[in-house]
């Protein structure tokens, strides 16, 4: 069969069409046992021009062009669509769609991964800080939404000299947080605080030997407060925190040079301290007011760390991640972040630091190298806590720095060093400032590393007086004079005893109306501390110590010059 113009002939085309119509494919198959399917209504097709319609009628339809959506006619659309740049444009758009789709998929996957990673990070950080080897949770109380929150912070510093090491934490801080009034305070409770629990009198730090819960319970017993949270820095942790934070800025108002605290020296000024330097600073008590100033330094340093964490440019959570291995706490990561935000709201400069009211003394209740203890009245502490909510900024307890009038007490001066003239020079300098000097001389031993200002209480013994014997002109004792003296003394004692017997009832009645012996002793100590503080302020050195059986003197205050001696100008 011949072909015309490269196409099928019309007769062959029709024959092929009939074969297609008779093919048994799909819906052309007649249904069995039923009425024949009605023929589908066919809609006439529309073509772009008469030539295409004519070829379609002969089944020669090559291409059916869609109606252009651009408003152009079919010929123009055909010419445009056949151009190379049109095809490239379509391909470019397809590539862009594939890229955008891929980027969106990557973004979704990344978001899911980041979210999971962030949650995992917070989970790891939170678990790292959890209390793992502590029973503190047994003693903690859940805070109410409208009450002041109390957090106990402890830290073990250790000692540079092993024989001086003490059991338990070296720093015990009470963080007082009152969001209603916008007040935050860091209070140093001395680790040597004398506490009695169940008739057991010990240093507060010693209570930690029975576990953190025992320590917290002892603090609650003393303060009459509920402790809500607990933070524990183990030995070596303080140095680790400081180094991980890149150092802490500290202003030294006194030079730090205490061989028992460490081998780091800091003159007066502002410096960025590293871990070992920070520990030396916190240990040092060879300073103006001894343990009292040490307590103030520790509280101020805790505030400096808080400021570094809360105002860090790297972010609080990032800084927390750097130090989380050095402490443990019951606080969650969310609790800590919320606390940091609140500190920024009230301003770190408004965080107050203070120390518990009281005084250092040597207790007879505990025997050993750690017998130095801090005495404080719970009633005074209660008033002190109430005052914290009504003030802000750095402060010092007035009772701790109270000074007496130099003209109201007398002083004995002893040189405890081999520095010639140290006692005489110091006595003259004090006399020029109005102090009453009754005696100057050398101590029994010249071995005092630091200057001690020892104040008298009723517990302080007076030196035994030698018995005076009458002598003849040649200097020999007169026989019978001693017996007479003894007889006179016996008569005086007997008379005194009779008078005492008569006054027993009156004394008992008076004692019931007056302060107890313990309260009287506390008043004596308060007076003694104020006298010692007056001497320390005048000299710029010295540590206040209560006189006990180891010191015997007649005056109100015994000043022993140590090798920290500095001439007063």
CATH level 1 class label of the largest domain: Alpha Beta
Kindly report the spatial arrangement of strands forming the biggest sheet. Answer: 9-6-1-2-3-10
The profile of the biggest β sheet is: 6 strands, mixed
Straight-line distance between termini: 137 Å
Overall shape: it is elongated
**Strand-pairing-aware structural class:** alpha/beta
- Reported CATH architecture of the largest domain: 3-Layer(aba) Sandwich
> How many beta-strand segments?
17
> What's the alpha carbon Rg, rounded to whole Å?
46 Å
Integer tally of domains: 3
Helical percentage: 25-40%
Count of discrete alpha- or pi-helical segments spanning 4 or more residues:
16
The mean pLDDT is 76
CATH homologous superfamily classification of the largest domain: LCP protein
Low-pLDDT segments: 1-6, 366-370, 391-400, 466-475, 480-505, 507-514
CATH T-level fold name of the largest domain: Aminopeptidase
Strand content: 5-15%
Task: List the keywords.
569 residues; alpha/beta; Aminopeptidase; Alpha-Beta Plaits; 3 domains; 6-stranded mixed sheet; 5-stranded mixed sheet; 16 helices; 17 strands; disordered N terminus
Structure, explained:
It is a single chain. This protein is α/β, with parallel strands linked by helices and 569 residues long. It has 3 domains: 62-129, no CATH class; 136-400, Aminopeptidase (3-Layer(aba) Sandwich); 402-464 and 518-569, Alpha-Beta Plaits, CATH 3.30.70.2390. The protein has 16 helices and 17 strands. The protein has helices spanning 10-22, 50-57, 74-81, 84-129, 212-223, 237-244, 275-283, 291-310, 316-323, 333-346, 378-388, 398-401, 422-432, 481-502, 504-513, 517-539, and strands at residues 149-155, 171-178, 183-188, 194-197, 200-203, 229-233, 248-252, 269-273, 327-329, 352-355, 359-362, 372-375, 410-415, 436-442, 452-455, 543-546, 557-561.
